[in-house]
Amino acid sequence: MQFQVLEQLHSFAIFILVGFLIGLLFDFFRISRKTFKTSDLITSIEDVLFWILSGLLTLFTIFKFNNGDIRIYIILGIFIGIAIYMLIFSKIVINTLVKIIIFIKRIISHLLKICSYPIQFILKLLKILFKPIKNLQKAISNKTKKMLKIKKNQNKSNLKKDFA
Fold first, then answer.
1. Domain limits, the chain
2. pTM reported for the whole predicted model
């Protein structure tokens, strides 16, 4: 009898930990929403993914540690674990991870700016090198347009002479 109670207490503690992990998983999705702007579709996909992962974690743990038996203390343990995490650790984890992610995003942004300088230099150089070609193309285009206008006007005046 005492062994059975100890086994149930052990399972209860494990399911408190599962609730804690579900709360942490929930916060990872909340953090991703705070740091990265996503569309409603992506948010819906994230929600479904959260529930699938939470369900799989819960089912795996029920089969691994409780032989697939669902007891009221399992559900209670999960809710207690979620509540403990949300009340004590959630704000700390979210604030810390959001600051870390924002810091990493800034570093990546600065690195991308630094890496873009050679590309910008090459583009400016190409623009300078191709400017004479572009000017030549414009000049040819203008001359062609003028020639076509002159030829068009000559054709009109020839037609007027023919009908006169």
1. 2-128
2. 0.67
